TrEMBL record:
GO terms for molecular function: hydrolase activity. Coiled coil: none annotated. It comes from the Bacteria. PROSITE patterns: TAT. Residues 1-30 form the signal peptide. Keywords: Hydrolase, Lipid degradation, Lipid metabolism, Signal. This is Alpha/beta hydrolase.
Length: 306
């Protein structure tokens, strides 16, 4: 899709205020991992406690302060525990990118849900979090690729608590909202990262032509979004090959469906998590639940899963 056809995100309304309840090689060219779809197995069925570690990484002169939320040993429930021991097991990566004016803590519902469900969730805080130009010039997408590289490297870092606990065989997942959703779509188009096998752009606009990655892509959007044009996201969906799906929150705005007190939040949460369970664990039961996950009086669902 040409730049002329894309709908730009307006600066004034882009903030995702109130949304959060509070691989070695940084690009397709540099990557050394050849991801494949996970061998069929069941994703964890019980919830985990949540741990969190903070890293002060960088890419050139760009600071990449990143919190990694992860399944932790201990009793499920409660707030993330700093530097808690990681749970027994090997867990795939599902990254989250925040929206304008936010940071890694703004979307705790999403990052905590991922960690408690059995995913390692790096969540960078972009240093220029009000600069939409850094999304359109690829800096945010390139930052995510760097964060993925750094996170994956922990699996083979001697003495690191994550060593041996990160599933590096199946590729990675990426997701995000608003400017973070655009960043996610950018990783499938203008700034591709061939380690990505699953993506969930939420409230995004079209960032360009598909780069041909073999990724399962789920769009989530409100059809009354005043900030990120719903029709632009629909055009982005139409251009991608299957497997793909589109969850529409009928009558919803830019991000209310990401908050647990929203009437149809369960449709967001369950579809979001089962998309990653299917794509990164190979859990076909999770795939088969997607339609029922997404269905309600306030949503519509379109999918091409084969």
């Amino acid at each position: 899709m040409s730049m002329r056809r894309r709908t730009l995100l307006g600066l004034g309304a882009a903030a995702a205020t109130g949304v959060g309840m509070s691989l070695l090689g940084s690009s397709a060219a540099a990557g050394t991992l050849s991801p494949r779809m996970a061998s069929p197995r069941q994703a964890p069925t019980a919830q985990f406690a949540i741990g969190v570690r903070q890293f002060f990484w960088s890419r050139g002169n760009r600071q990449l302060t990143t919190k990694i939320f992860y399944p932790a040993a201990g009793t499920p429930g409660g707030n993330p525990i700093p530097n808690a021991p990681i749970a027994n097991g090997v867990f795939p990566i599902a990254e989250w990118s925040h929206g304008m004016g936010c940071n890694s803590d703004c979307y705790s519902s999403q990052t905590h849900d991922l960690a408690s469900a059995g995913f390692i969730c790096p969540a960078p805080s972009f240093s220029d979090n009000t600069n939409i130009g850094s999304v359109y010039n690829g800096n945010w997408s390139k930052d995510v690729s760097e964060v993925l590289t750094r996170t994956l490297a922990l699996n083979s870092t001697a003495g690191d608590p994550f060593a041996g606990h990160i599933d590096t065989r199946v590729g990675v997942g990426v997701s995000g909202h608003s400017m973070g959703g655009m960043t996610t779509h950018g990783l499938l188009t203008a700034w591709p990262d061939n380690r990505i096998v699953a993506a969930v752009p939420v409230a995004c606009v079209d960032m360009g032509n598909p780069a041909g990655l073999h990724a399962n892509v789920l769009f989530i959007h409100g059809d009354h979004d005043p900030t990120c044009d719903y029709n632009s996201a629909r055009a982005a969906y139409a251009e991608l090959p299957s497997p793909k799906a589109f969850l529409t929150h009928v009558g919803a705005d830019h991000g209310q469906y990401l908050t647990p007190d929203y009437r149809y939040y369960a449709q967001t949460k369950n579809t979001f998590l089962d998309w990653f369970r299917w794509s990164l664990y190979g859990d076909t039961a999770a795939r088969d639940r997607l339609r029922s996950d997404a269905t309600s009086n306030g949503t519509s669902w379109q999918a091409a899963l084969t």
